[in-house]
Amino acid sequence: MNAPEAKSGFRHVGTRPVRPDGIDKVTGKAIYSPDFVAPGMLQGAILRSPHPHARIRSIDTSKAEALPGVKAIVTADDFPTLKSLMVTMGESAGNIIHVSRKCMAQGKVLYDGHAVAAVAATSAVIAAEALKLIEVDYEVLPHVIDIDEAMQPDAPLLHEDMVTEGVQPRPDKPSNIPTYVSKTKGDVAEALGRAAAVVEGRYSMPMVHQGYIEPHACVASWNADGQANIWCSTQGAFVVRMLTASVLGISQADIRVTPLEIGGGFGGKTTVYLEPVAMLLSRKSGRPVRLAMTREEVFRASGPAPGVQIDFKIGATADGYLLGADLSMKYNVGAFPGNGVQVGLITALYHYRFESFAMHGWNVVTNMPGIHAYRAPCAPQVNFAVESAIDELAYKLGIDPIELRLKNAVVPGDPGFTGGTLGEIGFVECLEAAKAHPHYSAPLGPNQGRGVAASYWINAGGPSVAAVSLAEDGSVLVTTGSPDIGGSRASMAIMAAETLCIPYEKVRVTIADTSAIGFSMVTGGSRTTYATGKAVIEAAETIISIMKARAAGMWGVDVADVAWGDGEAICLDPAKDNQRLPIGKIAARMNNTGGPISAEASVNPHDYLPAFGVHICDSEVDPETGQTTIVRYTAIQDVGRAIHADYCEGQIQGGAVQGIGWALNEAFIHDKAGRLDNPGFLDYRVPVCSDLPMIDTVMVEKPNPAHPFGVKGVGEVPIVPPLATVANAVSRAAGVRIRDLPLSPDRVYSAIKSKG
Amino acid sequence: MTKQFVTTTVNGDTAEFICEPGESLLDALRGRLQLTGSKEGCGSGDCGACTILLDGEMVCSCLVFAAEAEGRVIETVEGMADGSVLHPVQRKFLEHAALQCGFCTPGFLVATKALLDHNPDPSEHEIRYWLAGNLCRCTGYDKIVRAVQDTAREMRNERKTA
Ligand code: FES
Ligand code: FES
Fold first, then answer.
1. Would you state the pLDDT for residue B1?
2. Beta strands in A498-623 (DSSP E)
3. CATH architecture of A22-30+461-603
4. A21-24 CB contacts, 8 Å cutoff, 24+ apart
C-alpha cells in the first residue's frame, strides 16, 4: 500500500507516504481535547433539561453554591443580551442569538438535553453532586417532534416571534416554519403529461447524528485582564474564536484558540456548544475550567442532521430522457432555524438535464436539538428521494439504470448549480467507470439485489492562510490554520515537497493556534486540500523566488538566469558553468544574504469544482427476518487528482460507510414524552466492522485546471449516494420498493409481507 | 465514601494511585496516571476506544472499577512499542493509513494485539467479528482490516524465520 506510485510526472503527488503525525497517534501520545490538562484546572458539568419544551420559571443555585468545592455556577443570566446577527460557520450559517441559546437555554428549553446551568468544581464528582442541588422550576409546555404536526396552525410554537421568510406577502402570524424556498424551470405539469413513465412517491427519514467517536470537550482560561485561552478539538479554531467572542461580546484578539487533535467531526465540530460556557465559568472562578460532554450529551445536545419528508414525482420519455421533476421537501431542522432545505434545493436535481422542474422547500422547527453540518450537509436526504425515483423509472422503462443516468448526465458547459456553467466535471467518466466495473456485471446470489446511485456535492473554496519557512539546514516548515481531521498534514507536506522538489520528509507541518497565523475557514466543505493547499503551494512558490534571488546574489548573476529544479537553484549563465546551489546551502547562508527566508500566502479561491460519485451495492435480504447484509460495495468518484492516495480512498470508504449506516440502521428515536430514547451507541447503531465487506474504491482523475495539482475536494460527496444505492439494492433484493429510512429489519420484513 | 489505594502493574512498571470507589479504571488511567492514550468514546462499553489488556485479556476499561486493578497486570497502547520500536500492528496501521482522526486507534491497536496473541492466522471474518466491539466512524474499516491482515502475515513470517 505504501510504495510510492509516482505518476504523471509528479514525484510526491498521488503517493502514499506515512503521515507526519502518525507515530503520536499510534502510541497514545497525541493530545485530543478530552486529554488536555491546564494547571489548576477545575472540572465543569452542565445541567440539562429533562423536558423537550418548557418555560424556565426560575433557577435556584443557592444549595449548589454552598457545596464545598464548587467554585462557579453559570446560568442564562450570565450571558449578555445579543442583537440579531447572521454569522457563517463554514458549511452552515446561523443567528448568533441561536448559537448562544444552544450553549445555554434562555427563558425556554426547546429540546430534551438543552443546557440550563453549569457548574465548575474541584472535582468531577463534586460538580456532578452540585448539579443535583440546582433547582429548576419548569412550566412544561406541549412539544412537537413530527414534521407534519409542527406545520399545523395549532402546533405548539417554539419561537413566538418566528414568521416564515421567503413567503409573499409576509405572514402576519408566527409559525414553526422559518423558511420557504422554491425554484422552477419550465412547465412541469405539461412535461409530466407527455411522459411515457412517471414515478411518484413520498420519501422520509429521521434525524441522524455524525457520531464522531470523540465527544466535545474544551478547556477555557479567562484572565482578569480579559485575555483568554481556549483549547478544544474543532474543525475551525477561527470559528470557535469568532463565535465565542460574539456570544460573550468581547474582542476576538483577546481569545487565543488552540486546536488540539480532533477525534472526528464530519461537520459537527464547526460551532461551539461548550466554549462560551467554560469561559464564563473560568471568569467567575478565576481558574481554567474543563467542560466535556458524555456520549449521552453528544446525542441529546449537539447538532444532528435533519430528518426529512419529501414528495417527488418524476417522468421521462420512453427512451429515458428526463422530462420533469416535481419536488416538495420538508427539512426538520430541530429547535432553531438552520441551513437545511436551502442546501437541499441546490443539491437535488442539478446532476441531470431536466427539461423542467418545480422545487418547493420548507424548514420546520421542532423540539429536537438544532441541526448542524453533517458531511455534504442536507444533500444525502434529497438525493435519496431523487436517486430512488430515477432507479424506479429505469426499471419501469426497462432501461439499465446507469444507461438512463448517462442519457441525462450533465457535462462541462451545462448550466452550473448556482449560476454560470459547469467546468471540468467528471460525472460521465464516473458513470462509465461504474458501467465497466466487474462488480456491475457480476452474478448475484439468491435473495440478493444490486443498486446504483449517483450524486454530486458542490465543494467549497474560501479563505485560508499558510506560511512556509526555511530552517537553517534547508528543511521546511509549513504552518496552516486548518485542523488535520484525517491526514491533511500529509497532503500539505506532499504539496509543499512537490512544489519545492524536495523529499517529503524534509517538510514538517504545524497546525497553528488563532494567534499564530491569519484567518482560515473551517476544515469542511471538502475545501482544505484545495484552498489551504493553494495557500501552501503559493507560499512555497514565493520561497522558491526568494531562494532564486539569493542564489543569483551569491553567484553575482541576474535572477533571470536562475532556475529551480530538484531542490536546488540552477545557474543558467553559461559563464558560471551551470553551478547549482541546493536548498540547504541557500538556507545556511540566508541570514547573511538578506535574512530569514519565509513567506505567507493568503488566498480566497472560488475556482473549485463539484465532485461526483457513483456507488454500486449488492445487498442480501433475509426474507425470514428482513435483515440486510451488504455483500459487496464499490464507490467510484472523480477526485480531480489524489494528493495522498490512501487518505483519498479513506475519505471515500468512510463516507460510504456512514451512508450505509444512515440507510440501514441510524435514527433518532423519541419517546412519547419527547425524550431521545437512544442516546448511546448501543441503540443508535453505527456500522461496525462485522457489518461490512471491503469498500472497493475507484478514483477517477479528471484534474481541476484551476488547482496546480488538479485537486477537487473529496471528503463529502461519498456520503451522498449510499442512501439510495443501498435502498435500490434492498428494493431489488426484497422485491418491493421501500421509501422510508432506515431499512431496519422490521421495516423490510413488513414490506416483504405486505407485498403478499 | 473512603477512597481506595491501588497498587498495580501498568506496561511493566509498578503504578500506584488513590481512587474513588466508583471510579472506572479508564478514569484512573487517564486522570490519575496521565495515560491518556486510552480514550473514552462512550463510557458504557459500546465503542472500544478504552480497550486495554487486563491480565492479558481484552477489556473495556470504562467497565472495570479502578479498584479492581489491585494486583493485576495492565497493558495499554502506551506500552505496545518496544522503546522507540513500534509494535508491528502500530507500524502497519501507519503504512496502510488505517487511521484518519486516530481517536479509535488506541483501542483497535490493543484489540488487534489481543487477537493476534490468540490467533496468529485469523480469517477476514474472524478479524471483523473480533473487532466488532471497536467503533471507527472515519475509515469504514477497510484499511483497518487490511492492516490487521498484513500484521498477521508479517508476524507469522517472522515467527517462521525466527
Ligand atoms: S469508552 Fe469504553 S467502550 Fe466506549
Ligand atoms: S479514525 Fe476516526 S474514529 Fe477511527
1. 63
2. 507-511, 562-565, 568-571, 580-582, 598-603, 611-621
3. 2-Layer Sandwich (3.30)
4. A21/A261, A21/A484, A21/A489, A21/B102, A22/B94, A22/B99, A23/B86, A23/B94, A24/A261
| Structure-block grid coordinates of residue A724 | 439510495
Which residues have CB under 8 Å from B52's CB, separation 6+?
A: B25, B29, B38, B58, B59, B61, B74, B75, B76, B110
Distance CA A121, CA A123 (A): 5
Report CB contact under 8 Å: A26, B143: no
Q: In B, which residues are within 8 Å of A16 by CB distance?
A: 97
| Ligand 1 atom nearest B50 alpha carbon | 2
- Which segments of chain B have a pLDDT < 50? none
Cα-based angle A467, A473, A478 (whole degrees, multiple of 5): 20
Nearest CA in chain A to B48: A213
Taking contacts as CB-CB distances below 8 angstroms, the residues of chain A near B140 are 650, 653-658, 687, 692, 695
- CATH architecture of residue range(s) B4-79: Roll (3.10)
Residue showing cell 484546572 = A41
| A292 and A217 Cβ atoms separated by less than 8 Å | yes
Distance between CA atoms of residues A36 and A44, nearest Å: 14
The C-alpha atoms of residue A145 and residue A141 are separated, in whole angstroms, by: 13
Residue A70's DSSP bridge partners are A121
pLDDT digits (tens, 9 = 90+) for A325-355: 999 999 999 999 988 999 999 999 999 999 9
3-class DSSP assignment, residue A222: strand
Q: Of the CATH numbers 3.40.50.720, 3.30.365.10, 3.40.50.20, 3.30.200.20, which one belongs to the domain with range A413-458+609-754?
A: 3.30.365.10
Which one-letter DSSP state was computed for residue A28? T
**With contact defined as beta carbons under 8 Å apart, do B52 and B74 qualify?**
yes
Parallel, antiparallel, or unpaired for β A356-365 and A70-75? unpaired
| pLDDT of A6 | 43
Spatial distance between the Cα atoms of A469 and A49, rounded to a whole number of angstroms: 50
Binary contact (B77, A27; C-beta < 8 A): yes
pLDDT over 50 at A247, yes or no:
yes
Confidence bin at A3 (pLDDT 50/70/90)? very low
Mutation site for B-interface testing, chosen from A19, A21, A25 by largest number of B Cβ within 10 Å: A25
| Model pTM score | 0.97
**Which of B46, B102, B138 comes nearest A261 by C-beta?**
B102
How is residue B140 annotated by DSSP? -
Asked whether this complex has an ipTM greater than 0.85, the answer is: yes
- Mean pLDDT computed over A52-65: 98
CA A295 – CA A705 distance, rounded (Å): 43
Instruction: Return d(Cα B73, Cα B15) in angstroms, integer.
Output: 10
Whether residue A413 contacts residue A363, with contact meaning beta carbons closer than 8 Å, is answered with: no
The yes-or-no verdict on residue A385 having pLDDT over 80 is yes
Q: Is A50 in the pocket of ligand 2 (CB under 6 A)?
A: no
Name the CATH superfamily, with its identifier, for domain B88-161.
[2Fe-2S]-binding domain (1.10.150.120)
pLDDT of residue A9: 84
